[in-house]
Amino acid sequence: MSIISVKNIHKTYNENTVPVHALRGVDLEISEGEFTAIVGPSGSGKTTLLNIIGGLDRPTEGDIRLDQTELSTLNENQLIEFRKNNIGFIFQSYNLIPVLTSKENVEFVMLLQNRPKKEMETRAKELLNAVGLSDKLDQRPAQLSGGQQQRVAVARALASKPRFVLADEPTANLDSKSTADLLDIMAKLNQEEQITFVFSTHDNRVIERARRVVTMVDGKIESDETFNR
Amino acid sequence: MLLKIAWRNIWRSKLRSIVVISSIAIGVWSLVFLLSFSRGMILTYIDKAIENQTSHIQIHNPAFINADVDKNELERAAFNYLSDPDEIEQTLSQYEEIEAFAFRSYAHQTFLGVAGKTGVANVFGINPEQEKLVTNIHQQIIEGDYFESQKRNQILISRAQAEKYNIGLKKKVILSFTDQSGTPTKVAFRVCGIYDTKNQLLDQFNVFVRQKDLNRVLNIPDQSHEVAILLKDVHQSDEIKAGIAAALPSELVRVYDEISPEIELFNVQIELSTFIFTFIFMLGLIFGIINTMLMAVLERMRELGMLMAIGLNKVKVFQMITLETLLLGIVSAPIGMLIGYISVGYFKQVGLDLSHFSKGMQKFGLSEVVYPVSSVDMYITFGVAVLLTAILGSIYPALKAIRLRPVEAIRKV
Q: Among B302, B303, B311, whose Cβ lies nearest the Cβ of A112?
């Protein structure tokens, strides 16, 4: 069953001046537990598609259904609530809260969900342990390497127990070793805990590990391939 | 956690936060000191006025006080004395809260002549021993003595008058009165002492003679125009006044700020200047805060966008910015207050010597050494003002923050 259902999505920027058509009728179904990479050259619309799937942006036209929820029916505050409880985000530039430690960064999302303090602490430690950072609990982002920061971001994305994780170019700023480590962690979480991952990327190292690769060109899906990896 | 983030955010840009905190603290300090200084100056004036002449409460015949400035009326006013001095004395003796009281006679705007020079004086007829207990003119004698001789028609004049008329001790002063029958009378008094209260407003006009001498000239034996009352505690003035007024319905009973309207004026001035200074300070502060917090928001757009993306709602974003601003105020205001408290405390002990400017100040009865006076309500006012300003100043940056669209904010570098 599809956890993400995108139907005939269009997105046009600058509608009133010089229109830029970022998406031109995209249809996509993603099932629970998939490990999907959306690939394509710069300007192909992959980040726009990811933002729309994540409820950060609204399509100009078309429907998007996440699980059983039609996103167009939600107002701004409902969207924030929906994101908080259903979607985990991993950003290209890590985007951790610089004044909080690794553990506090992971706990923060659970705090927004009003989880008990004890539970937050235990889960944060578990997650940081799972991403190999059990010895960096009290370090702030500035004291961590790029790879380590992105691993904290993965732990944070999973802290809220989301239905799926959206990762926008998660390896763009990482070296080969960090990229390999990060992909190992995400693949393991995907296989063992059935967490759905959707990446936007043009990094071959990610594409090689993805079990489904959706290729976009000029705002349209050009190919959609599944691999048995 | 929001509090923790807000607190740590303040220290992300240490230099900027220190500059803001310092400027708020210096602002609060200067306000505390400036207002404590002006309050001290005015309270010294009030204390001096009370000590030298006014005392805490005075009783008069209402007609005496209501006399117009017209010369004839003022002359007639001399005959509007207290209706029953014995009853007054009896009433006042019942109050334990009263430290002392003194009966006085009084002649408004009397012509004073010395060796061809003339001027105007307010003549107080006092009972020297009684008066000693109520006011401290006897301590302000700089030459001669305070009615030590029992001779008739002795007069105390001020240093200002001595200089103006160029007279000294033992010299004669002619005072012109009109008695009850309307007959003008000139009487010679001999200078027994020269006083100096440092209040030129008072010293310019006031002369003191024995009450029995003045009463004899005015032909009002055993009468008095006023009773000056000194209380053990100034704060009981209104309460005691009400009691005396009820017991003596035919007399006019007034407390010190009713007697000397300038005291009331000064009190109003203290309140008004507190308000104006606080307002100007808040106005300056609010722009400083808006500027600082706006910079903080603009610098953190990506982070704010991320927070909103992962589920921090707009109310919480608003709270976070406001909390950050409030914390700046909560840190800086007490520092300013503490420095203010210490500096006011220091100068309260040693006094602030303004003798370079004191000539001008003395003309208005102000002391040359000022002892600043602060009060708890002053600190509370400034504390509330800073926090209120911080909240007001945070509104615009906080609105700016919640208007961010996460998808756009995340892309900002």
A: B311
Joined tokens for residue B213: 């001498």
CA distance B363 to B256: 21
Min Cα–Cα distance to chain A from B9, Å: 7
What is the chain A residue with the closest CA to B407? A56
B110-139 confidence digits (pLDDT tens): 777 777 788 888 899 999 999 999 988 899
| CA A173 to the chain's CA centroid | 16
Strands (E), B140-245: 141-144, 154-158, 172-178, 184-195, 206-210, 226-231
Q: Which one-letter DSSP state was computed for residue A157?
A: H
Hey, what's the torsion of the CAs at B207, B209, B215, B221, to 10 degrees? 140
- The pLDDT of residue B69: 53
- Residue B24: which of B336, B295, B358 has the closest Cα? B336
Q: Structural domain of residue A172, as residue ranges? A: 2-226
Q: Would an 8 Å CB–CB cutoff place A141 in contact with chain B? A: no
Number of domains, chain A: 1
- ipTM above 0.85? yes
Report yes or no: A166 and A88 within 8 Å, Cβ to Cβ.
yes
Chain A residue with CA closest to B313: the answer is A80
The two counts, helices (H) then strands (E), for chain A are 7, 10
Average pLDDT over residues A15-25: 87
Percent of all residues in chain A with a pLDDT value above 90, rounded to a whole number: 46
pLDDT band at B413; cut points 50, 70, 90: very low
Taking each helix axis as running N to C, give the angle between helix A146-159 and helix A102-112, from 0 to 180 degrees, rounded to the nearest 10.
20
Domain with residue A132: its CATH number is 3.40.50.300
Q: How many CB atoms are closer than 10 A to CB B93?
A: 10
Tracing tokens 């009972």 back to the chain, one arrives at: B127
Give residue-wise pLDDT tens across range A62-75.
999 988 889 888 98
